[in-house]
Write a structure and sequence with these properties.
alpha/beta, seven-stranded mixed sheet, five-stranded mixed sheet, 29% strand
Length: 440
Amino acid sequence: MSSAAPRATGQDHLWSVDEHLEDILATVRPLEPIELQLLDAQGCVLVEDVTVPVSLPPFDNSSMDGYAVRVADVAGASEEYPAVLEVVGDVAAGQADLLHVGPGQAARIMTGAPLPPGAETVVPVEWTDGGLGEGPVSGMRARALAPEGASGQVRVHRPAEARAHVRAKGSDVKAGDRALEAGTVLGPPQIALLAAIGRGTVRVRPRPRVVVLSTGSELVQPGEELRSGQIYDSNSFALTAAARDAGALAYRVGAVADDAETLRSTIEDQLIRADLLVTTGGVSVGAYDVVKEALSHVGDEDEPGSGVEFRKLAMQPGKPQGFGSIGPDHTPLLALPGNPVSSYVSFELFVRPAIRTLMGLKDVHRPRVTATLSADRALGSPKGRRQFLRGAYADGAVTPVGGTGSHLVAALAQADALIVVPEDVESVEPGAEVEVVLLG
């Protein structure tokens, strides 16, 4: 992260959503690349193009269990007049010393085995008698049970064209081709390709380590008994899951009580394993908003450029926000509101893009589409605020889910989109076109 302090704007400045996001993305920097083993690199972003050192497949090989033969030897073959060939042995996958198939000969071949010299095509075993001297068979007998199957004669009941059932060398990728380009996120198929071309390690930007902690003396961990005035801590679970969904390695810290010193100490302890810190709660104007109390003056002379600025944004939900850096490495910290919907919407708008930026991705935002509003009545929105309403999107239409309350977790669980109402719009009629942020 850049060591530049957040720009000073004054306590009364009302930030727009775009200004706040721009400030975050201008400050957060992609993590430095490292070399990782393939499985450790899953979910990471490549920082260099990967070139194929060896063709795939590296040799002509069979795509079927059957017999490697010469085309002329099976021309005109039928069940009534089968071609009778001498079986000269087996060709198994991984076999180095290959048999030679001459005129009137066949080699029993397994899927993935190299096409032996002299052979021009592969006849599936189902087109033969399997060396049993009877009608067509459905498969080969195991060599361990019937070693004699690798010798004797085989009757072929159908002809085969040249190179039928043969996977050509380089038919997947050729040596010198670009296998993967920089910026690719490594999922299972990409890991498979890297392994297939012999790469044991790869240079990537690591997945960001994100530490999530919630604040509030009223919070109780799920599974424990609720007492009067207490609620279960859902925010830290939601945001940790959201961070993982965004591509991060996320760590959840148990809820911290409303005590500034305890919070400050907890955050300092977590710095050692954090590329990004996310707090939820304690950023408003209440007497117990300890995140503001603990972090408003966290920077000191020993850490120039650090500090967290608390802001008011022209948005609903999520008006109170905090952003800055703390610690000797200027670890970025985003402080989100405590209401469940506010914190989740804030995560999607600000934290997720920050995580994706740390990963080194070019496109850090959720996809946005235009949809038709499907509703029973007009949607109201406060003047001068950009409102984000929960919605369900399908087939080009979006339907509001739940009310506007920032505590409605059940409604949030039914939503897969955010309906965006601009700052200059106070009412949106049913049937109107609206901008929609797709959440999944």
